[in-house]
Structures are given as structure tokens and as C-alpha cells.
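Predicting holo structure, adenosine monophosphate bound.
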Amino acid sequence: MKILETKQQLEKWLKKNKSPAFVPTMGFLHEAHIQLIKKAKRTNKPVLVSIFVNPKQFSAGEDCSTYPRDEKKDIAMLEKEKVDALFIPKKDEIYPKDFQQEIFHLPKKFNILEGELRKGYFQGIATVLKILFDLIKPSYVFFGQKDYQQNLLVSWLVKKYSYPIKIITIPIFREKDGLAFSSRNAYLSPEERKAVPHIHQSLVYIKNLFDEGEKNVKNLKEKLKKFLKKEPITSHIDICEILDAESLEKIETITENAIVLLYIKVGIPRLLDNIILEV
Ligand code: AMP
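Done. C-alpha cells:
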């Protein structure tokens, strides 16, 4: 596997490996990242993974400087998967001193939920993805359903700039007990770790109620919150919403596909999870 630290090294590699299958990450890799890579390998394109903890998507007081890192382990995992190249730039490589941040006029669905909770978050993600897409010109990019609102942003960005990129989204990959894999799970204490599968159980419970005929959003949301609060460790609910799956607009009754979105603060991290209610 080629390890590329500079844009120059990346450009040189791209000359022989045009329009790769690209998997952007923030590192501290886990099984869900590996699933994305396996999917990328199936395209038969050269597979390029990036590791970059993007400072522009963190606001003051968030965990940018303490975000978990283990480069050695990440590299070993990527080599095992026979990834063709890893792009692992330093901050100044992506944001040189004279970098001028573009302001994106984002649709209103990015001012709510995580966009409201984390100021500048989606501007930061759009900024870094545009830089990476312009540099790499991938044919495919791979994302996970766990970051649902982020994926809508990727679709918006690709459409807005007419990138000839196919976006592939994989379902949420979970531990055996249902917890969605996340680099931030490393922050959980043993007691918290034991309790957090309750989050996924709450989503399954709501999906079952929906499948049995409950389509009223107010009722479903009340039941979801009540279920989450049965476990003190999952009772700090930052976001609990059931919205139109595309527009993220509020709905009263589910007549089109809806998305149940949870952001639960457990100790240090905020855990994200979601489930689609398909009509
Ligand atoms: P991150 O390194 O956390 O920025 O994640 C990189 C990519 O992996 C993003 O597209 C995430 O949505 C995806 N991802 C992270 N965790 C999961 C998971 N449990 N299931 C599916 N995709 C995931």
C-alpha cells in the first residue's frame, strides 16, 4: 500500500490510478470502515482511503485534538485489506496558510439536527469533501448510513458541482449486541458500553410498532423517548426525531419513507443511530 502524505504524492499516484474508488475516514478504523473498503474493492477500481481529522467540522470545545488516533493500527488494517493507497495528509496540506474558506449556501435541511447542534459542522464537511473530490476525482465514494444527514450533504454536493461520482451508501454496521460501530465508542466506560445497545433496541422497538400499523409520529416519538429513558445511561437525548427521509421535514403521519434519528449523549461522546421506516 502506498502511503501518501502530500498533495504532490497523491497527484503522482493518481496519474497511474485514475478515478479511484474513494473511502474518506477520520481514522481509528473499525469493522464498519472495513465494510466500506470491501465494498470499494468490488468496483475493481484502485482503492484509495483517506484519514483526515478535519478541524473545520469541529467547533470550539469539541474533541478535534483528542479524537482517538492509532495510525499504526490503521495502516496494518488497511494493508490487510490490500488497499492500494492511503492519503493521510497533515492539516496544513489541506488547509495551507493562505486557504480561503468558501461559504456554501446549504439548503435548510442542513441547519437543523446536527447542523444546529454543531455550528459550522456541515460547512466544514462540505469544505473538506470539495477539496478531496477536486483533488482525487473519484469514480465512486463510500459512506455509511450511520451519518444520515451527512450523506444527504454528500448527495447535495455531488449534484451541486455536477461531479461524475457514484455515491455508495452501506447500511449501519453493528456489533453483535446492536451497538453501531463508531470510533467514538472508545470513549465509553465499561458500564456505558454495556448499556448503550439499548439505543438500537429502541429503534427496533419503534420499527416494530410502525410495521404493526402505528403511523402517527407524535405517538412513535413519545414511545421512543420513554423507551430510551428506561435506561438512565441513554436518557440524555440531544435529538430524537422522525422526519421525511429525503427532505428532513417534519411530518405528522408517515405516508412516505421516514427516518428515525437519534443523537444520544453518553458521557463524553454523542452516539448517533438511525433506522429507516419504509412505507
Ligand atoms: P468516520 O471515520 O467516523 O468519519 O467514518 C467514515 C465513514 O464510515 C463514514 O461514511 C461513516 O458513515 C462510516 N461509518 C462509520 N461508522 C459506521 C457504521 N457503524 N456503519 C456504517 N458506516 C459507518
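The two ends are 44 Å apart (CA to CA).
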